[in-house]
Amino acid sequence: STTTLSATDTMIELRPFRPEDAEAVQLLLNDREVSKYLTARVSWPYSLENAQWWVEQGSYQNPTWAIEYQGELAGCIGIEPDPEEASMGEIGYWVGRRFWGRGVATQAVRQVTRQCLQSGQHKGIWAGVFDENVASMRVLQNCGYELQAVLCQAYFKQGKYYDKHLYAIAG
To answer: What is the spatial distance between Cα 104 and Cα 93, in angstroms, rounded to a whole number?
Structure first.
């Protein structure tokens, strides 16, 4: 379920999305630098209607949290069961550009990973990363994820193919 995760050792709060988050979600995702390495699940440009659907319905389909940094919406993190192996979870996240370089994504990934593995919800967690998204690879590595494979030209976005780096961590 989508509940607030405790954040005693961190500068962030992970909480459910609220309807009033829609405008901030739209603003953050309409930054091409933020959305360029997100899969086709996230459209660009990102409409207010898409954001409203996300905060009111979409974010409740799987465990998903708004990432709040110093009281401000900074991004999103979620985990969903792997469709081929339910004991594995796929983690995904994004953070608005002005929050980059502050450890926000690392804190969020560390918290969600720890919670999901300790609770036994998942035996392992994996993430797919676009080959040019070195910052996201560093986030995963800093949280104990290890590179498992590189799938050549597995992502296609805005007329270009990207290799998909698969990172994973076991519980």
So the answer is: 11
Alpha carbon separation from 82 to 7, 45, 55, 74, 111 (Å, rounded):
26, 27, 22, 26, 19
- Asked if 7 and 99 touch (Cβ cutoff 8 Å), the reply is no
Please state, in angstroms and rounded to a whole number, the distance separating the CA atoms of residues 89 and 82. 5
Q: Which residue has the higher pLDDT, 18 or 85?
A: 18
How high is the mean pLDDT of the chain?
90
Chain-centroid distance, C-alpha 110: 12
Q: Is the per-residue pLDDT at 37 higher than 80?
A: yes
Q: Which residue has tokens 């494979």? A: 149
Q: Pull the structure tokens for residue 31.
A: 């930054």
**In whole angstroms, what is the distance from residue 44 CA to residue 29 CA?**
8
Question: Structure pTM?
Answer: 0.90
- Residue 83 CA to residue 106 CA, distance in Å, equals 25
